[in-house]
Automatic annotation (TrEMBL):
Belongs to the multicopper oxidase family. It comes from the Eukaryota. Residues 147-221, 443-581 form the Plastocyanin-like domain. PANTHER family: BILIRUBIN OXIDASE, CUPREDOXIN SUPERFAMILY PROTEIN. Keywords: Signal. This is Plastocyanin-like domain-containing protein. The keyword Signal applies. The keyword Lipid metabolism does not apply. It comes from Marchantia polymorpha subsp. ruderalis.
Amino acid sequence: MGRIERGCAKSSKRYVMACWFVLHVILSSISMVTAEHSVCLALQPSPALTPFVDKLPIPPTINVSNGTRLVLGAYKITQKLHRDLPPTTLYAYGTSQASASFPGPTLMAKKYITTSVRWENHIIDTEHMFTVDRSIHWADPPNGGVPMVVHLHGSETRSDSDGHPDAWFTAAGDVGPTFTSQNYVYPNDQEEALLWYHDHTVGMTRLNSAAGMVGLYFIKSVVEEALLLPSGPFEIPLVIQDRNFWANGSINFPDTGIFPEHPNWCPDYYGDTILVNGKVWPYLEVYRTKYRFRMLTAGNARFFNFSLSEPSLSFVQIGTDGGFLNKPLTMKTLLMAPAYRTDMIIDFSSLPVGTKVYMNNSAPIFFPGTPPPGTSIDNSPGQRQVMEFRVVAPPPGYNMPTVYVPSILAPTPDKNLNPYTDVQRNLTLNLSPPGTPFTLLLNNHRFMDPATESPKLYTTEIWSITNLIGTTHPIHIHLINFLMLDMQTFDQGRLNAGNCSLALQFPDPLSCFIEPPQPPIDAQAGWKDTIIVFDQKVTRLLLRWKPRYGVFTFDPTTEPGYVWHCHMLDHEDNDMMRPLVMRWI
């Protein structure tokens, strides 16, 4: 079976679809005769659930803008995720067992005011709720239990507060090789933005995240608060994920893999239901005014391409991973990869009371290709619907706040490469060689191989990332925000045959490129910490190893260092991650 999928991934796009279809048929047959197991890419469908019967919940908030120390733990809880589902067992963050929730509490921080968090592990299970694949590199605590470590995604912080994958710890007291402390410090000396915290344990990130270990983190500023953007009840967080469920409410996560060498690991987990803020297909009542939505796509592998059912409405994007865009972007569709954040406005003021608007998703699994024929997980209506907006009248005498979306939100990002670029790195996304255990790799290296990316602080680099895998991947780089310069399609067949070169520019007949460099699409605009690297393209990034403005207020060269990795969590867990070691000289 491993050879089948490896062949699918290496084949031409047309052959990929046929190959995946054959694989799906085989796996569907397996699932029929092993119904007690959850087979990778052939999960039993979730029970039929009526959409739009649960009101959108808003995660609880904790104000950390006064600099006081916070203690947050991970707990085992149960929570109702749909009216017609029994309570679901989860691992979730909170200040106590009683207050823990999925998603976890939203932390509200203030720019330039440090946040201190002590992260605790109160999950006393001897085994994880999902099956752990012991064939891949994972935490493997000596005394069992559920290891955890928290990464504040998008944060500029010391590496010993970054949630290094090997800095895990358990409730029983076992710790990973790079563990130093459970006390983390977040300086918040960066631009106002939406960050998020999630588990980052080596070989187990996909499991802990699917179990519920995720939450939001806002950095606010006096500048943002002075703007007349929608705020308070008109600023709505949306954490969007996908899951499969059993009839008893438990999460259906694969326990049977498709590679003999990896008996339990699945390369991609896709759910057939969409959750927003921990509810399946919820609804939100809105007034006839502008709303600001702070969106995070936090699934294991799923891309989303959002649209609105009302033709007169558009998304007005004002921010991305790293904060405000230079100016608003108006669009009919909104593409988001795993770990993407989008700050956007929807104006409902033109719609009469009683109107219902649906936010839908058109992105297929195995994005961006056409899903294999007969792949039921992608054809079910549940993949296409996200949530419902219901336009309602405000209470009598309600004073609607004045809101305004500025035409200029932030300085234009500087993509000037002068006076010079210090380093140009050519990197690849690729599969492990034939005859070896199946893994997805960065630059042909595994996570535990010695660091090859060791940038010098306050220098500028261009990363040219060549995707040779056959599928599209979101790449996340810790510590800094970066800018995308361009992307360029190449002929992988000629490249594999060795009769062209990526070192030669289009339209040289010996160049592998089949087009000039293309500018970033809207989904890749602005300051990013995660970027889509499309199949059979070279994606070029501009990285300045410094804060957006000024200097770091901490030493980024201390141990254990940072990482960069694919943010499809199933890939990250199977070696698609590399160390990132900063240096002064």
